[in-house]
Design brief:
Layout (H helix, E strand, L loop, with lengths): L1 H21 L3 H4 L6 H25 L4 H11 L7 H7 L4 H29 L8 H25 L1 H29 L1 H7 L4 H19 L4 H12 L3 H15 L7 H26 L6
Length: about 290
């Protein structure tokens, strides 16, 4: 049953990204490559500033080791595959949202293993970098479904447009139905992490990510929202792969709590991001410069 639920979750994410690909073309997917300044901001915010913030929090704060590991793993992970939909709903351009997703996924194949190796050495961990697993997670959750959708959009744009909506709605429903039992199953482990500054640390990391992304970008106000969400929310699959490598290499019991800690981060991130988006909608008229 657990394997079926996990398969349903993975299939739902694949289908959602596939539906996104059906609604865009190569021009949108390669947006970041044509805007090097925006890409540089993403790299600085996601893969430089936030890993440094996570490392500082792990070194200076008296947190559960699983929480420290989760923070570092999340900071080194690329954008979550569902982020473009949230950014588009917030008023951002689809080209910006999809372009950042593609660029971050490609960068993660190189940046994430290198950053993980550096931080593992910094904390004295003899851990093999799970490069192959990271590549598989990024490929099957982001690149493959997005490219497949884009190809169909290029060949038959009319059919792609008609399919995108229904596939996205069905996938969203199955995503919720598959995520809820996973959350309920891990609830005891998640509850065991509450306290000791865990919630405050995760909330602070999310708020810092939103602030860094919001103020680092330029241009339209909607673009600020997209980069803020991109900096604060990360790919849980990659983060769990990184924490799993540490758990397997060190055999530390607390390392096995990193995955529930990442799920707790997802829940807090969803709540805090929703508050941020609500504030943004009230304070910024759509289409503001």
């Amino acid at each position: 049953m657990a394997q079926l639920i996990l398969l349903a979750l993975q299939t739902s994410i694949f289908a959602l990204v596939f539906a996104l690909g059906l609604s865009v073309g190569m021009k949108e997917a390669t947006w970041a490559l044509r805007h090097p300044r925006d890409l540089a901001r993403v790299v600085l915010a996601m893969f430089v500033i936030m890993p440094l913030v996570a490392a500082a929090m792990a070194a200076l704060l008296d947190l559960n080791p699983a929480v420290k590991l989760a923070l570092v793993a999340l900071a080194l992970s690329p954008l979550p595959p569902l982020l473009p939909n949230k950014g588009i709903k917030a008023g951002g351009e689809i080209s910006h949202a999809v372009g950042l997703l593609v660029a971050a996924a490609l960068l993660a194949v190189v940046v994430t293993p290198v950053g993980f190796a550096i931080l593992a050495e910094r904390f004295g961990l003899d851990v093999a970098v799970p490069t192959g697993r990271i590549v598989r997670v990024v490929t099957f959750s982001v690149l493959l479904p997005l490219v497949a959708g884009i190809i169909i959009h290029q060949v038959t744009p009319g059919l792609a447009s008609r399919l995108a909506g229904p596939i996205g709605k069905v996938a969203s429903l199955f995503l919720v139905l598959s995520f809820v039992p996973i959350l309920l199953t891990t609830a005891p482990a998640i509850w065991s992490l509450i306290g000791g500054g865990t919630v405050a640390a995760f909330a602070a990391f999310i708020v810092v990510g939103l602030a860094v992304g919001h103020y680092l970008t330029g241009g339209r106000e909607e673009d600020r929202t997209i980069l803020a969400l991109s900096t604060a929310t990360r790919h849980p699959g990659v983060a769990i792969a990184l924490s799993g490598a540490v758990a397997a290499a060190t055999a530390r019991p607390e390392a096995r709590l990193a995955a529930p800690a990442i799920l707790l981060y997802l829940v807090l991130g969803a709540v805090i991001s929703a508050v941020y988006l609500r504030i943004r909608r009230k304070s910024t008229p759509r289409g503001a410069p």
